[in-house]
Structure prediction request, 478 residues.
Amino acid sequence: MSLLVVGLSHRTAPVGVLERAALTGDVPTRLLHDAAATATVAEAALLNTCNRIELYADVDKFHAGVAELSLLLAHHSGVDLEELTSHLYVHYEDRAVHHLFSVACGLDSMVVGEGQILGQLRDALARAQEEHTAGRDLNELFQQALRVGKRAHSETGIDKAGQSLVTFGLEQIAAGAGAIAGKRALVVGAGSMSSLAAATLLRSGVSELLIANRTPERAERLVANLGGGNARTVDLAKVPEALADVDLVISCTGAAGVVIRVEDVASAVAARTGDTPLAFLDLAMPRDVDHAVHELPGALLVDLESLSHAHAATPGAGDVDAVSGIVADEVAAFGAAQRAARIAPTVVALRAMASEVVLAELGRLDSRLPDLDERSRAEITQTVRRVVDKLLHAPTVRVKQLAAEPGGASYADALRELFDLDPAAVHAVSGPPVGAQGAAQVGPQANGPQVNGPQAPRPQTPGQARPANGSLTGEAAR
Prediction:
């Protein structure tokens, strides 16, 4: 597997770009299918969250893969390719695995150490499996990433120090609008993030909790899962009226446009009494709450952009270092296992050829010595097989060890050449690649994403060569 990651996140793109690039509705599924249908891609998966969009693909060509995935991201996001690629990053092979494992551990999150990313990775894999764009290789990779993430949270303090965006956001709300306990709250949306928000609000001691959602049944199901109590549903169309009766609103829907308008917030603020601002926590991408609410007296808006600026509360350096060490160890182990697995079919084919030679020679012996008794024949057969096994043992064990090291793939080629192995026989042992297949016209080279990979080839832009080593994003990559 030659893993390629092309994406953008809160680390490389401003919230405004992330908002315009947000994939909603059936767009993620269409992007996934289009990626898997390209000639360079064998398997594909998409990690699509409120602050990152990443395409993971098993590719056979680096340059074509970068170009094709960049074009697809631009096409489906609606952001111009030239603008988008200034914010894109590219990771390749071992560096791509390192990036995924770091993401799984929460090291690349807006709030370092948060555990929600594990569920998002699990959803990304499930979607790719359901759409038949992920096969054996990506399934194994994502499953290992999930295991690495769980290990990091169980073996280090990053699990205790890490916060969810909801918790971090509520801390910012409390700093500007007072304690959460005793407030009347409204949650708009009923997805996983909204469910977490509702549960967190109840644990924080809100006096009343309203749930509004485009599909009333989902809102009712969420209330039931929360155990009822002081939680109840409200019609989504009545949210503008409900704003005047609450103190805090958390919104996280998949809507393509604004859900809460500044005019409705202004009316609600005018109807309120007291000095405490009407607080909004907007965790949606694209945003649910009109950005103009930031300028509205009597209202407090905390959104992903302000959370990004406020991101100072991170786990201790010791925990981050410990998790980084886990990631490095796991990447090395995964790479060694992958490289060793690549040579296994060659070793199996070699032993199969040796077995055929033994059988042929024993058959020739039978024809020359037809009167040989069974006991003698069995002894000769055992001796011949033992000699062949001993001759093959040391080189096959050693070649597996060498293949597990970086650059070890060449040893499989050498073994095939030395023993004149039939490539078809090796292919029959390894089997056909698992994953979606297809063909598409490969477009022009993407012009400027950050490239990060071991000896990664250098993508070319018209009239300009781009360095592959180091980390280049934005204007620095031009």
